[in-house]
Amino acid sequence: xxxxxxxxxxxxxxxxxxxxxxxxGLRWLTSGYQLQAGxxxxxxxxxxxxxxxxxxxxxxxxxxxxPSGVALGVHQxxxxxxxxxxxxxxxxxxxxxxxxxxxxxLFGFPGRLSSLDVxxxxxxxQRMLASDQDxxxxxxxxxxxxxxxxxxxxxxxxxxxxxxGPWVQQPLPPESSARYQSLATESRGRLARGxxx
Length: 197
Fold this sequence. Notes:
- This protein is mostly helical.
- The chain has helices at about 5-30, 45-60, 70, 75-85, 85-100, 120-130, 135-150, 155-160, 175-190.
- Helix 2 (about 45-60) crosses helix 4 (about 75-85) and helix 5 (about 85-100) crosses helix 7 (about 135-150).
C-alpha cells in the first residue's frame, strides 16, 4: 500500500482539481442548449442548431410586415441545407457554427454568442465580421449569407419586399428536401413519444 505523503496528497489534489476544471469546462461548452417545440437537428447538432437559431433571431426580428426568421423556420432550413451537403462541407459548416458560438470570448464578450442578449450578440457578430482573422470573417459571412438566402427566399417575405414570386408556379424542391422532411417527421414523432434519436 502506498504511503500518503504530503507530496502525493498535493499531487492527488491538483490532479483532482484539474479533472474537475476540465469537466466543468466541457459542461460549459455543451450545456444550456435545448430544441424548441417542433425543431429537429439532423444536419447540425442540437447545440449548433440552437446557435443558428440565435443568429437567425438576431438577423431577422419581426419588423412591420416582415415576420421573424425564427417563425419562418430559417434555422431549420439551414439545418436541412447542412444535412444535404457532402461530409466535408457539412463538417466545415458545423465548425463555422462552433467558431461563431465561442468567438465572442476572443472579442471581449463574457459568454457564448447564443447566451448574449440580442444587442450584445449583434455587437459581437459585427466585431467578428470586421476581424482581421480571415477564418472568423468567412464563418460569419457564410452563415449570414445562408440565413439571408433562406429568409428572403421564403414566400412569406415576398409581399413585404415587393416581390411577386418566381415565374415557375409549381416549385420543384430537390429530392434531398423530401428525404429531409421525411426524416424530420420521423424524428419529431420519436421526440413526441419520448424516444431518443
